[in-house]
Structure formats: structure tokens, C-alpha cells
Design a protein that fits this description.
Length: about 240
């Protein structure tokens, strides 16, 4: 089953077209990394999935539900981690979780999310106001919000920025567990370490388009050969710039 299907999506801010026909698919159980320089449209694509930006053209399906036709149903399958600076500073961490749970029509915050909060050493911050949090603490809350409600598609934007090594390892382990249970992960990142060691598939975005994809076999071949994945990314990036 496709956890995510994006077909020829276009989006713009004013007269500037940011996405110029993006297409990608992520199957259940896959960790998909979206790569590319700043300003090429990665975050815009994620915001389209979250409903923050309305595409001018194209189709998006989450867990095979058309987002444009059944937004509420589609978003029940989505776990979206907003940027840390977009968290409401006047709420506590617990209140943020409760608001998200209510929006997802959950009776309470998941026990698994509370257990993850403990694993991330976030529990002591639950009843403190968000505007007192460090970047790393805000990032932990963003991740917890994305995990609420057992989403079939977990969407993260540079989720490992600001995390200490222990917390980053804890998050990777949790994402792998959820992948094993059938969820999918879409991660926009500059971290090639994540791609090289954890991704099932990856794609490079340039100029509002997907210019190259690495399938599971491609990534496996690079790993087995001991090849330089960073060099491979740079080579494709240069080709994309020239094109």
C-alpha cells in the first residue's frame, strides 16, 4: 500500500512557483529521505501535505485518501512535525500534546507517545511553557506531536537538528519500530548519515522538481561497495544545477 502518493504537484507563493510538478511515492514500511539545498521546495512540499499550502495543481494521497477531496480523513493518517519555531510559546508541552490529540479526535495522548517522552527525557518539561525550551527540547516536542495517533505517514523536516546523540538514537530506534509495524517516514534532511545508514529510498529535489531518485537497490549497492554517498549526491546535484 502507498502511504503517500504525490502526482505532478505544483505550488506557488504569489507569482513565484516553488513546486513545478513534483511526483513521488512512499510505500508502507519505507523510510524515504528528501534531499536538496535550501530553497528548492522541500519544506513547501511538506506544508502541502499538512494543508498549510494549497497546491495549484496535482494530486496528493495519504494512505490512499485524496487530500483535496477528504482532507480530514487523510490527515488522520498523517503525523506532521512542525518546525520548532512554530510551536505556541504560551502553551506547555502537555497542552500542545492535548490540543493535537483533540484535533485528531483522540480521547487522550497515546501511552506510546508518553513512553517516548520518557525515553527522550522530555517528561520533566511537559508542564513547562514552550517559550522556555531550548532548540533541542522544542525538537523533541515536535517529534512527539508527529507520533500521536499511530499515523501511517510520519513527516519530519530536519527532525534531528538540535538533538543530542542519545536522543537522536532513541528517535531512530522509534522510527524503525514504527516502520516495522507498517508506518512510513518521509524525512526532509541535509544529513547524509541518515540517508546512508537508515533510508530505504531517497530523492534529490532541485528547482522545485525531483531530479533523481535512489531506490533500495541503489542505496544497497552504494553501501555494499563502500562507496562515497556524499560524492554521489554532489555529482547528481551538479548535474541538476547544469540542467
Amino acid at each position: 500500500m502507498n502511504a503517500l502518493e504525490v502526482i505532478e504537484v505544483h505550488a506557488r507563493y504569489g507569482k513565484h512557483e516553488v513546486l513545478q510538478g513534483v511526483s513521488l511515492r512512499v510505500r508502507a514500511g519505507q523510510w524515504f529521505c528528501l534531499l536538496g539545498p535550501n530553497g528548492v521546495g522541500k519544506s513547501t512540499l511538506l506544508h502541502c501535505l499538512a494543508g498549510r499550502v494549497v497546491p495549484t495543481q496535482g494530486t496528493m494521497r495519504i494512505a490512499e485518501v485524496n487530500l483535496a477531496e477528504s482532507a480530514e480523513l487523510a490527515k488522520r493518517h498523517l503525523g506532521f512535525a512542525c518546525a520548532p519555531d512554530q510551536l505556541p510559546g504560551l502553551l506547555t508541552g502537555r497542552q500542545c500534546l492535548e490540543v493535537y490529540a483533540l484535533a485528531k479526535q483522540l480521547p487522550t495522548v497515546d501511552d506510546q507517545v508518553l513512553a517516548m517522552a520518557e525515553a527522550l527525557r522530555f517528561t520533566t518539561y511537559l508542564d513547562q511553557f514552550v517559550d522556555t525550551y531550548s532548540l533541542g527540547t522544542r525538537q523533541k516536542l515536535c517529534v512527539l506531536l508527529a507520533l500521536l495517533g499511530q499515523p501511517q505517514l510520519i513527516v519530519l523536516d530536519e527532525a534531528f537538528n538540535g538533538l543530542d546523540p542519545r536522543s537522536a538514537l532513541t528517535l531512530k530506534q522509534e522510527l524503525k519500530r514504527r516502520l516495522h509495524e507498517g508506518a512510513a517516514v518521509l524525512l526532509a534532511t541535509h544529513s547524509l548519515d541518515i540517508v546512508e545508514h537508515h533510508a530505504d529510498r531517497a530523492a534529490l529535489m532541485m528547482g522545485g522538481r525531483i531530479v533523481h531518485e535512489w531506490q533500495e537497490a541503489d542505496l544497497a549497492a552504494i553501501r555494499q561497495s563502500g562507496g562515497d554517498f556524499e560524492a554521489a549526491i554532489v555529482a547528481v546535484s551538479e548535474e541538476g544545477r547544469e540542467a
